[in-house]
Amino acid sequence: MESNFVGDRLAKPAPGGLSQEFLGSRWIKLALILALVGTVSLVGCASGVSPQVQQMQLVISPSALSFGNVSLGSSSTQTVTLINSGAASVTVSQASVSAAGFSNNGLTPPLTLPPGQSSTLTVRFAPQAAGRATGSLSVVSNDPHSPTMIALNGAGDQAQLSVIPTSVSFGDVAVGTLNTQTITLINSGTANVIISRATPSGNGFSTTGLTVPLTLSAGQRTSFNVAFAPTNAGSVTGSLSLVSDAPNSPSTIALSGTGVTSTFLLTASP
């Protein structure tokens, strides 16, 4: 009997039978030399058991990250967990993110995770523009299914302060009297806007009904009054400056008006 067992010898056949156990793929050539004349029956069976290959399996939890709405100039951070759910050690060689505004931190490759062990890393979203952003986190390892990926999404919010009207003309106003007009502020962006300062300039101009700091949520509006109370006759120009955290800050409203004096004509009666 011959075989391709390297370094092994086939066991000596037991009386009444021949058996050989082996793992994997093997060939055996059986030679029978019979000196007897008669009928020979050869009955046999062969079976092989392949050894079970231990494999690693890298899982990322959660399977997706949603950062929601994040204001421009700020950021949001979430944590993901890398888990080796396989039966052999897994080695992580790289972790990267796609799309502008996303970044990752906390993982120093190469990182080896024995079976059942885990490690964490952080993913940060700092939007660079208003609107929806999508991307992915990709982790490269010796997992047969590498790279392991999860989806990322978020939205950049931006405050935008609109002023109506953008200029106010009071016309002629008698010296010593007061004229008021209404200004409306609208947050036309997608993030909160904070108005921190309102400063009028020009002789006789002032504001009423506006208390700062004032926060306007997306789509919210408020109104206040600008007053002109001339102290002297003549034309006056000025402005109202509104400072906020909106990218178009400061918002400036042009103001103008004319102070006039009353003329009385005295006549004598006969």
Features:
single chain; 270 residues; mainly beta; Immunoglobulin-like; 2 domains; 5-stranded mixed beta sheet; 0% helix; rod-shaped
In short:
Helices cover 0% and strands 50% of the residues.
Descriptive account of the structure:
The protein is mostly beta strands and 270 residues long. The protein folds into two domains: 58-157, Sandwich (Immunoglobulin-like), CATH 2.60.40; 161-260, Sandwich (Immunoglobulin-like), CATH 2.60.40. The chain is built from no helices and 20 strands. It has strands at 2-3, 28-29, 58-61, 64-71, 76-84, 90-97, 102-105, 111-113, 118-125, 131-141, 148-157, 161-164, 167-174, 179-187, 193-201, 205-208, 214-216, 221-228, 234-244, 251-260. It has a five-stranded mixed sheet, with no helix packed on it. The chain has a five-stranded mixed sheet with strand order 13-20-19-15-17, with no helix packed on it. A four-stranded antiparallel sheet has the order 3-5-9-7, with no helix packed on it. It is rod-shaped and about 125 Å long. The N and C termini lie far apart (158 Å). 19% of the residues are buried.
